[in-house]
Amino acid sequence: PRVPVVCIDGPTASGKGTLASQTAQRLGYLYLDSGALYRITALAAIRAGLALDQAHEHSIASMAERLPVAFEQGRVLLGGDDVTDAIRTEEAGMNASRVSALPAVRTALVALQQSFRRLPGLVADGRDMGTVIFPDAQLKVFLTASAARRAERRHKQLISKGFAPTIDTLRADLEARDARDSQRAVAPLKPAQDALLLDNSEQSVEDSVAQVLAWWEARQ
Ligand code: C5P
Q1: Is residue 57 lining ligand 1, measured as CB closer than 6 Å?
Q2: CB 5 within 8 A of CB 138
């Protein structure tokens, strides 16, 4: 039998990470934050002095293929260096969005993402978990929330970390990232044909987790 996978895809700041990691915890499954891999790739490329453009697509892809990355106790290590905070800035997200639009980079990260599918099961979040990486997943959820709500949540998050761009700046920023992610030629952000849609604009995290668990139960 296939190792179970729950995919949670959706736009920037929709709450995918929180929903996916809590669902994984409740099910006792592994958790894959695929966006972190693009963030780490972008950071590794910048540290190697590469511009994040098409001219460097193949050099960046070959770095991505042998990314010395480790996830340990909630920390993200790149070649032994703790990059947990460095990959969480808005700039790191924008850079991730740039490298993720390069087809060779996406291909280079496929095997690494699929290697997280191990027993007892996996919950994976990203943009193309259900469409490209785990097309045979047993449950696919497409999570959305209004741009206003997402900007508000991101604002709260950033304030708690000590930076505070305005809500309007954040909203413009995430709409730009949505546009880039939805319009790219390869693996654009869109719901899988068999995904269930969940809009959490007016929903608590607990209620979203309960919904996903109920869908999961219904499929057993
Ligand atoms: O989810 P997160 O905001 O960390 O992702 C950062 C960027 O990485 C996204 O804006 C998107 O461009 C890219 N990404 C992707 N495919 C994924 C996950 C993230 O293209 N599966």
Answers
A1: no
A2: yes
Between CA 13 and CA 202 the distance in angstroms is 14
- Binding site membership for ATP: which residues? 10-18
Domains, the chain, ranges and CATH? 5-212 (3.40.50.300)
Torsion of CA 169, 170, 171, 177, to 10 degrees: 110
Please give the annotated binding residues, written as ranges: 10-18
Name residue, tokens 């511009």: 51
Determine the 3-state secondary structure of 201 from DSSP: coil
- Ligand 1: residue of 97, 122, 134, 170 to mutate (most ligand atoms within 8 A of CB) is 97
Nearest to 208 by CA among 219, 200, 216: 200
207 HSE (CA, 13 A, CB side)? 7
User: 52 near 59, Cβ under 8 Å?
Assistant: no
Global pTM value: 0.93
pLDDT tens-digit map of 102-120: 999 999 999 999 999 999 9
